[in-house]
Records
---
Amino acid sequence: MNYLAHIYLSGNNTELMIGNFIADAVKGKAIENYSIEIQNGIKLHHSIDSYTDTHEIVKKSKKRLWAKYRHFSSVIVDIFYDHFLAKNWNSYHSMELEMFTNSTYNTFSEKLDIFPDKMQFFFTHMVENNWLYNYQFIEGIETVMGGMARRTNFDSGMEHSTEELIKYYEEFEHEFESFFPLLKQFTDSKIAVLL
């Protein structure tokens, strides 16, 4: 899953949310520099990724992209799924998406000094382009994919992946809708153990 889903799945726990957001930039023993709850958020992030990457429904989504995008298929599907979460946000959360994203930006801004340098830069860019809110639009996904493509060392072709999103829109949306409640259930039980 991508950033919107990771934040959403953290519930109302700020430290858990921060850990879940910065996890990919925290390597090895650097995890020990953070509070226990942020460490739990980092662990939660990895559990979510592992559950997602190995799930049969997600594999079906990735298979549709594999011939063209190879190992970038996982990243693309993560972002596609964030699109469907944002688009159908009111089915999953009582707070409007715009209010939720603004609240998240404000919360993270207050704690930005504890973020790894890489994530401080990334977060600033995210807010400037309002990624979390704009995930709901195809144009928003196109912008994110273009940025991802520019940051890869290889010609990933990700900047063209919205073509597949549009072509197989119903299939991807159905797979997301089938998978996401299972992920939410898994995450809730994982949080109960961690906390």
Note: The chain has a mean pLDDT of 94.
---
Amino acid sequence: MSDTLPKGWKWVKLGEIAEIKGGKRLPKGILLTTKKTPYPYIRITDFKGHKIDLSNIMYVDEDTRKVISKYTVNKQDIILSIVGTFGLCAIVPNELDNANLTENCVKFVFDKTKIDTNFLYYHLISPDTQELIKSLDVGSTQPKLPIYNIQKIDILLPPIHEQKAIAEVLSSLDDKIDLLHRQNKTLEEMAMTLFRQWFIEPTKDGLPEGWEEIRLGEFFPVITGKKDANFATDDGSYPFFTCSQKPLKAPSYSFDASAILLAGNGEFNIKRYKGKFEAYQRTYVLIPYNSEYFNFLYLLMKFNLDEITGSFKGSVINYITKDMITDFKFSLPKDRSSIKDKLLYFDRIYDKVDANTSQIQTLEKLRDTLLPKLMSGEVKIMNNE
């Protein structure tokens, strides 16, 4: 801790400013249900990073709710995972007001006239606090963060008006990032809808006149990533793709192109990528001979991914072969010039997606740079009173 603090700032223990309350395990023999009831149940698996993903929320029935009714959270409460993947932190979204909370999480109860919710949230997800949280593990077989250790977490607390100002800056960046993500989702859905209308529906009753059946292998070679990748980091200029599609860093087998990346085993994820990247074994790199078809081919493969990978092999780990990709058949008009405008329309959609993605990366970098500096008082927000 620094001996020199900004005026009005002070170090406190988290347990001094907030009461920490645990969730509740489901009664023995009771299972969650996907059937929507008034009683959602928040699990660690509902975390997506430091946010709650609403796409797979589970529920309890009314009888179960009566048993665990004291262990609920309200909208805008802060929750923290404490077992397994611990340290995940989220603000409860409005949609989950009065939800039940798993025993593997805790919630924080504090005076919101003295502690700003968003400020505390950003403090808990800041790199320094996350590093401290990871050091408080007491589990031998399964990672676990006990409440008494959470109470010991140090929080550098400025006056409330500065808390709000700091949180407003960071929240505005996150709001813009979320907006761009939503725009990209809408654009992707629009592209997929148009693809279905233009290229799937015309063939649902058979091959239309003037169309022909062709193979994917006519549009690109199937290249595999390198088996013995060097994981030593160099300048970090090439994102590194594995079958899980997680960018790492490695200077071993590089590309610089517009490519469709298909995970050849596991969950068979598909991704479009433009620029420099590395690829590992069982990641198939598909670079079209004709760049005009890049976004069309991505949509084609995304739409038909289950069919392309449906004959997967393997007893322990599922995998697909090159032939399953190249031999996949689909239909197009023989007169390729007739679809040129449609291809260009896809390009315009994905130009906007790429521009948004670039802006997201810039904003995330700015937020991640500012976060520790604002939390430590190194960067001050002027005229915030």
Note: Residues 49 and 88 are 7 Å apart (CA to CA).
---
Amino acid sequence: MKLNKGNTNEMGKQLLKIQSLILIIVLSFIVIIYSYSVIKYIVFDPKSLNFITRSTKIYDKNDILLWEISKDNAVSNTPVNLSSVPKSCIQGIIAVEDKSFYSNIGIDAKGLGRLFISIFTQGSSGGGSTISQQVIKNAFQNIYNRNTVDKFNEMIYAIKLNQFVSKDEILSMYLNNVYFGNLNYGIEAAAQDYLKKTVGELDLAECAYIVGITQWPGVYNPSGRLDTGLERQHVVLHEMYEEGYITLDERNNAVSEVLAIDFKSLEFKAPHFVNYIADDLDVKDNPPESGKIKTTYDYNLHKIVLDLAKKNVEEINIPKLNNSGVVILGKDSEILTMVGSVDYFNKDINGEFNTTLGFRQPGMAIFPLLQHLEIYPYILDLRYYPVGHMNDEITKVENSLTEFGLQRPLTDNWCTDVRKLQGCEVRLFDLTNSYKKVSQNETAGLKWIDFSGQASNSKDAIAIAYNRDYTIGIWLGNTKGEEISELNDETMIMPLLHKIEEEVSKLK
């Protein structure tokens, strides 16, 4: 059977049209990709990379680490110079993550192949990114659910990063920000958490274990599955041997080494004070460049005071009395101790709540302060609302202030008809700080001047003591604000005050 010549020509024309259309589509695709790549390349600034894995370590006056905090409390990070990282750790990470790191332009041929495959697999061919690409990924916090466009962007950015930043700088970015599991970002944080060592102290076996975690942080870290993590360590050591970084004997010795993994969780020291500092200095959103804050806090004194406060509540042992708070200020109003509750982790007493910053009823503990007219401005800083039976005392103070020529009435800040019925409220921290002003304006010596007060409804007891150098404030009561029928400030809070005075008097 012969084909009609006209039909053959027509089919040829149709085929030519299809081929031309395909060529146009391909060329258009290439132009679009090229244009997109050029724009992305030009717009991207390698210096704009901003890692949000920064954290801040808070220390007491004696360099005791109290806690490490970050945004959402989701980061532990201690950046180090690359020169501090052992050669074994650097070689290990290159051997398993990016063998051609020092010679590639930020991407490799395998990566291009995976990208091409992902176009037809809806992004399912992930893995195997170069170290440079992982730096980009970490900086943009685009770790999960990355699509083909994301990966393509990473390649473009990685190429430009390599043209404007040295390989050592890129490696430093990676090691200081990659995730190692258990809230640890950066190799130093991982070394300190898992092995209780600085990264500079790690040997070959330890380096191989730590760097192996990065491939699957949630599983390979010791808090996940230690056995699986050790299997990954063996892979790292084998790759290091294959790349010529270590000898066979070194590999075998490292495999047989028993790692001293430390599973003890980090103690949250002085939690109420740490949270106070974090909020006051806005540390979570604006961490200091140094990553460290040294405070005036005395953690050794904190432990003593916390123990005394806890024992005092236990020994009193009466219904509903379940909590206590203590704040101690130094000569210049610096915070030495802030115990917000007897047990931060006890939900039954709402232990996380900082009672030194909560509004409580001071009772008669307020009146010695009212007699010091020279610190009137500080008194007005207190949110204090007198109850009805105190009105005569307040009137006397108002009259005295008028005689001194002070026109601002106490009622600006102090009282409404409703609050007269509800009682008085003042923050223990503010009250203590106001008495600190008294001590600074007096010629008081080292002898303690102390007194206490109890709320008229038997909900709170407060004691204050001050001398030339220190001021102590103590609250005793019920976290829920319930009435405590047997509450007695003289027999229940004053003994604790005197014990704390003894401990503070020992300070140098």
Note: Residues 81 and 258 are 28 Å apart (CA to CA).
